[in-house]
Amino acid sequence: MDVEEFRKAGKAAIDHIADYYAGAIDSLPVNSLVQPGYLPPLLPDAPPEQGEDFSAITEDYHKLIMPGLTHWQHPEFMAYFPTASSFEAILGDLYALSIPTPGFNWTCSPAATELEIVVMDWAAKLLHLDPAFYNASGVGGGALQTTASDSALIAVVAARERFMALHADDPPNLANLVIYVSTQTHSLGLKAGKVLGLRVRALEVRAEDGYALRGETLSRALEEDKAAGNRPFVLIATVGTTSSGAVDSMAEIGNSLKSHPDVWLHVDAAWAGIALCCPETHDQLQLADLNLFMDSFCTNFHKWGLVNFDCSTLWVRDRKALTTALDITPPFLRTAQGDAGAIDYRNWHLALGRRFRSLKLWFALRGFGVEGFRKHIRHAIALNQTFAALVTKSELLELVTPPSLALSVIRLAPPNVAADALNGLNTALYARLSARPDVALTQTTLNGVFCIRVAIGSPRTTEENIRRTFDAIIEEAKVVLGELK
Ligand SMILES: *Cc1c(COP(=O)(O)O)cnc(C)c1O
C-alpha cells in the first residue's frame, strides 16, 4: 500500500467506523451467534504468497470477523463491566499507532514520557486522589499499565521489595510470604500469587457486611499468620468488587494495618475508581480513607472511563518502592537524562517497551473535560437506579445486594418458592438468557447464592435499552417458572 492508497483506504475505514457507531451497531445482535471453530474453515490455512489488494482484506473483515464479534459497545451490553470507547480515544490511539515508539526511556521520545507524567497527574486530579500520588510530588507518582491484573502484579512486586528491605536483618523465607486478598477479590490476586510463586490467603467476607472485607477479619488473620511464622506483606483490597460492587471497609483496614506498617495496601478499583470523578460518590467509595491509607491504587479508564482498551492507571505513594523493584539498567539502556533523574517508565511496569497510551487518555480528558466525565458516570448510575426500581417493583425478581453505582445484582425469587430451589431456578434462567442474541449479562455467586449481574455503562445506553433487557429477563423468568409447574 502506498501513501495515496493509504489515504483512500484510511478515509473509508473511518467512514465504516463512523457508520458503525452512527447506528449499524444497534441493528446487530449484541452477542455473536457463531459456534466455536467457525472461523478456521473460512480462512486459507497459510498466508497468501503474493500481497493482496486492501479492498479484499477489508471485505473479509466485514464478512468474516464482524459476525464473530460480541459488541461490547452495544447499548444493550450489560455483561462483565463496560469496555470504554470514545472517538477522542480512538483518534488518540490512531495517532499513537502512526508513530510507533517503544517509550521505555525518556530519550525514546521525550514527549511520550512527559505527556504520561502530566496526564497521570490530570487523572489523579480528576479522581481526587491525594497530591502525594501526583508525579509532581517527586515522591509518589503514576504510570499507565495494560490492565488491572498487571497493575496488581506490579504493586505486589513493589510490596515484596519493600518488605524484604524492611526486614533485611531477618530476611523472610519466600515460602513464608503471603499475599492477602478477600474471597471477593478479582482473580488478579490469585494470578499474582501464581506468577510470583507466593501463597495467597483469601479472607472471608459476610453477606451482612455487604461482602466487604472488615478490619476485624484482617487483624485476626494477621495475628494468626504471624503467630504461625507466616509473613503477610500485602493486602489487595477492592473498591467495587466484580461480583457485587462491594467496597471493602477502608477505615477499618487502614486502622488494622497501623499495627502492621510493613503490609502494603493495594487498592483495586478497576471498575469503580472512575466514579471518583463525581464528588457525590466519595463517601460510598471511602475516598478520604483511601487517600489516607493506601500505598497504591489502580483504576481502568478502559472500563467505564471513556478510553479504549487498554488503559489502566496505577499510582503509588512511593515511586522508589516500584523503581527499586523493577529497575535493571544494562549499559545499553543507560542515558545521561536517566542518570540525571528523568523518569524512565520501563522501571514502572513489567516489560521494557510500552505503548504511547497517554495520547488517547489526553485526548479523552480534553475532549470530555471533567464535566463530561461526570455526566457520563451520572448517566449510567441514574439508569441503574431505574433498572433497580423495576426489579424492586417486580413480583418475580429481587436485588441480592443494594445497587452499587451502575451495577445491579439480581435473582429470580418468586413468592412461594423454597429458598433451596432458588439456585436451580436462577441457573436455568441464566442459561436461557445467555442463549439469546439480544441479552448480554453475566452470572456470579455470592457466598453460594447464584446471581445475575447487570452492569450498565455504555454512553449510548438509554432507558429504552434498560427496559428491553428487563423485559427479556421477565419473559425468560416466566418460561422457567412455567417449566417448573
Ligand atoms: C475488571 C476487573 C479487574 C480485571 O481487569 P483487567 O484490567 O482485565 O486485569 C480487576 N479487578 C476488578 C475489581 C475488576 O472489575
From TrEMBL:
Query: GO terms for CC?
Result: cytoplasm
- Entry superkingdom: Eukaryota
Q: Which residues cross the membrane?
A: none
Which InterPro entries does this UniProt record tie to the protein?
Aromatic_deC, PyrdxlP-dep_de-COase, PyrdxlP-dep_Trfase, PyrdxlP-dep_Trfase_major, PyrdxlP-dep_Trfase_small, Pyridoxal-P_BS
Please name the GO terms that the record assigns under molecular function: carboxy-lyase activity; pyridoxal phosphate binding
Which metal ions or organic cofactors does this protein require, according to UniProt? pyridoxal 5'-phosphate
List the protein's name.
Aromatic-L-amino-acid decarboxylase
- Which species does the entry assign this protein to? Mycena chlorophos (Agaric fungus)
